[in-house]
Design goal:
Strand order of the largest sheet: 1-14-5-11-12-13
Order of helices and strands: EEEEEHHHEEHEHHHHEEEEEE
Structural class: alpha+beta
Oligomer: single chain
Distance between the termini: 5 Å
Strand content: 25-35%
Length: about 280
């Protein structure tokens, strides 16, 4: 094998092009992956996990790369990150108000994406289109812009009465969803959600929520040679050595002829990568 490098994993870095370009971070090294399609690759977990925040060695990874003490103390690991409508900043119980002000009280977007089907989601503006790529979406578009993560979470909570808010990862990895008209779906969902949206506007003011009616649909093409018929999940905790022919990359998954592995799940794991 011509490439051999070790380091701690982080979620794959991406660049939107005619085909998504993927890079595997291993500490300070960044390995281009697209050129390895159709080739044998090998990842071996070396038994070390080091917290992405404090560097402490940990027997287990929490919330994708944190040790348990950091997981229980850091604001980026709080439950309101996964459920932003449960933000408790105003109650004075935010784990780190200054962190919340920097990351949560900034422009957020509510979007529609077609991954395993159409779903609603939220993200910071700086994470477009990265968030969509990470979810394996082949089409996506923003539909609202707001001033905080909390407001975005309330809108998402309102819309998900009429559209899914989860990606079914097994279905996403078995192929690309059929193209849909996201503009028509947006208009239909908003029409069904007007009462809830009006209540949010009354709470925060009419100018707090910007409806985005003239956004282009972003089309995303993933580097996949062959989708699996059956999805077999590979796990470093159960199988330290993962190897096979790289048949594709979608979302944060490497698709091998032996199974699929979610790289983001194993953030902070020390591995040896060979190809």
């Amino acid at each position: 094998m011509s490439v051999s490098v070790s380091g701690h994993l982080a979620k794959m870095q991406v660049e939107l092009d005619q085909q998504v370009q993927y890079f595997l971070p291993l500490d300070d090294h960044r390995e281009p992956l697209n050129a390895l399609l159709g080739k044998q690759i090998r990842l071996e977990y070396l038994g070390d996990i080091h917290c992405v925040h404090c560097g402490r060695r940990s027997k287990k990874s929490f919330s994708q790369g944190y040790c348990y003490p950091c997981f229980t103390k850091l604001p980026q690991c709080d439950t309101c990150i996964m459920s932003p409508e449960k933000c408790h900043y105003e109650q004075g119980t935010c784990r780190d108000p200054s962190w919340g002000e920097e990351y949560c009280f900034t422009d957020h977007y509510v979007y529609l994406a077609n991954s395993s089907g159409v779903k609603v989601g939220i993200t910071r503006g700086s994470q477009i289109p990265i968030r969509w790529i990470d979810q394996g979406a082949t089409q996506a578009m923003p539909i609202f812009r707001v001033k905080s993560r909390y407001q975005a979470g309330l809108i998402e909570d309102c819309l998900r009465e009429h559209v899914a808010d989860r990606t079914h990862w097994q279905k996403m990895l078995k192929g690309n969803s059929d193209p849909v008209n996201l503009e028509e779906i947006r208009d239909s969902i908003i029409a069904k959600s007007e009462s809830g949206l009006s209540a949010i506007e009354q709470k925060f003011g009419l100018l707090a929520i910007q409806r985005l009616y003239h956004q282009k649909i972003v089309e995303i093409n993933f580097p996949v040679l062959e989708f699996p018929e059956k999805v077999k999940s590979l796990n470093f905790d159960k199988q330290p050595l993962v190897e096979g022919v790289l048949q594709g990359i979608k979302g944060q998954y490497l698709i091998l002829d032996t199974g699929v592995i979610n790289i983001r799940k194993f953030t902070a794991y020390n591995v040896q990568f060979s190809a």
